[in-house]
Write a structure and sequence with these properties.
mainly alpha, two-stranded antiparallel sheet, 8 helices, 2% strand, globular
């Protein structure tokens, strides 16, 4: 359930940055590397350097989340997963308070950082590898599970297929939700993802108890 919630938020934030924060996707970095390479090829050095900013933010998010999960110095009284969702909620509120005149890059870099930490922290659900910020792996896994289900007729592969299809569906629902909020709230429309995030905190706390 928690992964479905986080996947919904991923779709929400992806639509947010693309729709009203510069026309880019911040949930993953493949596009940034492609644009970085193209800028280098065109000798657009300043533009190439710009793409190092979101890529570095993504790197830092992975670095810090891994340290928080694995280092004994980062011992906390609550689960790291719960702390991360709280941090994401605080960052979303801060972004919502920014004036519309603020550079888009602020939102882009913060969301890059958030998505990196989320992707690195929530990796597996019920023994199934998961990604909660983008769809490529889920689409790949649906193809694999479908092939194995047809070949073996094993119900476990059918269940895995259904799991990944659910992730894709809620991601689309998150993007559709942002599209609904934007006309009414514009730059603060992404605050709508606070509601599912609260559900994520509740689920993490329940597993802790």
């Amino acid at each position: 359930m928690d992964f479905s919630i986080l996947m919904t938020v991923g779709g929400f934030l992806g639509a947010f940055t693309y729709t009203i924060r510069g026309g880019v996707f911040c949930n993953a970095q493949t596009a940034n590397f492609v644009l970085f390479a193209m800028a280098l090829g065109d000798a657009q050095w300043s533009r190439a350097l710009y793409f190092l900013i979101p890529m570095s933010a993504y790197f830092l998010g992975a670095l810090l989340s891994e340290a928080a999960m694995s280092s004994p110095r980062w011992t906390m009284p609550v689960r790291w997963e719960t702390v991360l969702v709280l941090v994401e909620m605080v960052l979303v509120v801060i972004l919502g308070l920014l004036p519309e005149s603020a550079p888009y890059q602020i939102s882009q870099v913060v969301i890059n950082f958030m998505c990196s930490m989320q992707y690195n922290t929530f990796r597996i659900a019920q023994g199934v590898p998961m990604a909660t910020t983008f769809c490529t792996n889920h689409l790949r896994q649906t193809g694999i599970a479908c092939c194995k289900a047809i070949r073996t007729r094993d119900i476990q592969h059918v269940k895995r297929l259904a799991c990944h299809l659910e992730m894709l569906a809620v991601f689309v629902a998150g993007g559709r939700g942002l599209h609904h909020f934007v006309p009414a709230f514009y730059g603060t429309g992404h605050l709508g993802c606070l509601a599912p995030s609260c559900g994520g905190i509740g689920g993490s706390a329940a597993r802790r108890s």
